[in-house]
Design a protein that fits this description.
With about 70 residues, this protein is mainly α. The chain is built from two helices and no strands. The protein has a domain of about 50 residues.
């Protein structure tokens, strides 16, 4: 089952408010992912580190595209 994420607000927002709205929209899905991984036996700290590594890899991919881990 794919997580559902609320869309961004339709009204014009400052960058800070847009980021805050995005954080608010993503937090439940990320927490569910972390919880599911922990229930599967993964250590929470490693799950969070893995998410950070994926985010950093995505940031690097914007500058120089690489092969994804999964297709």
């Amino acid at each position: 089952m794919k997580p559902t994420v609320n869309p961004p607000p339709s009204e014009a927002m400052s960058h800070a408010n847009y980021l805050a709205a995005c954080l608010f929209a993503l937090e439940p899905s990320l927490e569910s992912l972390v919880t599911a991984a922990a229930k599967s036996g993964w250590k929470r700290d490693y799950v969070l580190l893995a998410i950070m590594a994926l985010v950093l890899d995505d940031t690097d991919a914007a500058a120089s595209p690489t092969q994804p881990l999964h297709s």
